[in-house]
Amino acid sequence: MTSTADHPHYADLRAELDGLTTEAFRPDLAEIDRRATLDIARTMNDEDATVPAAVARRLPEIAAAIDATAARMARGGRLVYAGAGTAGRLGVLDASECPPTFNTDPSEVLGLIAGGPSALVTAVEGAEDSKEFAAEDLTAIGLTERDTVVGVSASGRTPYAVGAVEHARARGALTIGLSCNAGSALAAAAEHGIEIVVGPELLTGSTRLKAGTAQKLVLNMLSTITMIRLGKTYGNLMVDVRASNDKLRARSRRIVALATGATDAEIETALAITDGEVKNAILTLLAGVDGPAAARLLAASDGHLRAALEAARAR
């Protein structure tokens, strides 16, 4: 049997993991498997309840990263997530939900996962250990200085995530490093470091738990508030929603109704003359303009409905 002494690399890595908060062992939970199911569920729920407070402690850093991201995207840049395993999957998830929610082009918010699309459902051995793979993936999408790259890694040491940030920063892109350990290499490599320290996991080293929840909360903020800053909402209404199925078509009509108070007949007419574009339909109803005028006003206002309304009323 081969010992770790025969593999100095693994011994070094083990020592590195021993120093990470996310990998710490909880002696108080050493016999959790002997507890009643309800007791385990209560313990897990109590652990999860600590995550929002950990996120709250980093809100200034999160807000600064969002403002910088929105400024880049307003100039035509993209938002790109890069991570391995759970972190990578969360980035792909967040990116994939932006087109139906905010009517973004699929190329505007992207999720890169170490090992490629197959890694979404199956572990790809060794993929997360390569900074070079990250550089290759970013090169393949034509990274520019207008883009924002968010490296996501619970440990904050994953080579793929760190490599993505290092490659992006060297090319002038905005970089954000999201990790769940203090003093992480990922945060240090990024222009905006965000470290959400949630503490040891219920299952030692299982960072799909509290760390994954923390990452999801922060990614929700990054994409959602960036889109708010870019005028993709009107108040708390998703006025850029893409009506690609019956549920979203019904939601579109409800959004127009909430924004305008118009009758069903008026809403149907407004959507018909604006090719189903919710934002345009609202503008025709609130500003009393026709479909082409609504489109022109929104184009001149960079898609911001409030600004378009003010422009229409000032005419």
From TrEMBL:
Homology family: Belongs to the GCKR-like family. MurNAc-6-P etherase subfamily.
Active-site positions on this chain: 97, 128
Alphabetical keyword list: Carbohydrate metabolism, Lyase
Signal sequence region: none
Annotated protein name in UniProt: N-acetylmuramic acid 6-phosphate etherase
Note: A lyase-type mechanism (elimination/hydration) is suggested for the cleavage of the lactyl ether bond of MurNAc 6-phosphate, with the formation of an alpha,beta-unsaturated aldehyde intermediate with (E)-stereochemistry, followed by the syn addition of water to give product.
PANTHER family: GLUCOKINASE REGULATORY PROTEIN (PTHR10088:SF4)
Subunit structure, interactors included: Homodimer.
A GO molecular function held by the record: lyase activity
The organism of origin for this protein: Streptomyces endophytica
Metabolic or biological pathway, per its Swiss-Prot or TrEMBL entry: Amino-sugar metabolism; N-acetylmuramate degradation
EC id: 4.2.1.126
Catalytic reaction(s) noted: N-acetyl-D-muramate 6-phosphate + H2O = N-acetyl-D-glucosamine 6-phosphate + (R)-lactate
Group of enzyme by EC: lyase
Domain SIS: 69-232
HAMAP family: MurQ
Gene name as annotated: murQ
